[in-house]
Design goal:
This protein is α/β, with parallel strands linked by helices. The protein has helices at residues 41-51, 82-91, 96-112, 130-139, 163-166, 187-200, 226-244, and strands at 2-10, 13-21, 29-33, 56-60, 121-126, 144-150, 173-181, 205-213. The chain contains 7 helices and 8 strands, in the order βββαβααβαβαβαβα.
Length: 245
């Protein structure tokens, strides 16, 4: 594989982006959108795994507007730690519309790159970025052919471009994966989202993984669940195979 860390120009500055792709030919682009703790080796490894099955994976640091010093250590998961406090100061300012502009910048970069295949794009997000992936499918329905949210937070909210308001605008297939135990996506909210999803007419799926907690797919977390994590990979890769090749 070939790995690079590049800067993608946006209207708000240079967005540091990890790009991982097979070393021969041009491959379909996939956007991997980070969770709240931010860019770290765990996510690099997940990008690498997806790249090995034939995709050009682009993973932007969505905190770039707050500067280069927006990568945190393992203590970011400890409430009250310095890293957690610094992360929350950035995270709480995040909204959907600016991230949609970031997605547009990444798509433009892909279109201009000879190493990335022209055509449909995939997008998936974890935690805080679950809503971003679904919103991107609605904002760019002619480019995002497949999108997935894994334990996305507050998918039903009063936020501008909240996914529950725009599900019907997506032309690509959506896959929404939820954990049974998730304070950031409680089951009553998931039930409401499921009803709206069914009404939207999208041909995708909302799935609740029983017995697991928010963050189950991250191998460095205490609540990592191997069976559910492997199912997450199976469902994600199958989704991209259907729509990106």
């Amino acid at each position: 594989m070939i790995e690079d860390i590049i800067d993608i120009d946006t209207g708000d500055g240079a967005m540091e982006t990890f790009v991982c792709r097979p070393d021969r030919g041009a491959h379909p682009p996939v956007l991997l959108l980070m969770d709240a703790p931010g860019i770290r080796e765990e996510l690099y490894d997940m990008a690498r795994r997806l790249s090995t099955v034939g995709y050009a994976v682009l993973m932007p640091n969505l905190y770039y507007r707050a500067g280069r010093d927006t990568k945190y250590g393992s203590a970011v998961l400890e409430h009250g730690s310095d890293d957690h406090t610094r992360m929350r100061a950035v995270r709480t300012k995040m909204t959907i519309p600016p991230v949609m502009e970031d997605v547009a910048a990444i798509i433009a970069y892909c279109d201009a790159s000879s190493d990335i295949k022209d055509g449909p794009v995939g997008a998936h997000g974890y935690c805080m970025s679950g809503p971003y992936a679904l919103a991107a499918a609605a904002r760019y329905p002619d480019r995002i052919a497949a999108a997935a949210s894994f334990y996305g937070t507050w998918l039903v909210s009063d936020a501008v471009e909240s996914p529950h308001l725009t599900l019907g605008q997506a032309k690509g297939e959506l896959y929404i994966s939820c954990a049974e135990f998730d304070d950031l996506a409680p089951l009553p909210m998931v039930d409401e989202l499921k009803a709206l999803f069914d009404e939207s007419g999208n041909f995708g799926e909302l799935e609740i993984h029983p017995g697991v907690h928010h963050g189950f797919a991250f191998p460095k977390r205490k609540i990592y669940d191997q069976a559910a994590a492997e199912r997450h990979w199976e469902r994600l890769i199958a989704l991209y195979r259907r729509h990106l090749g």
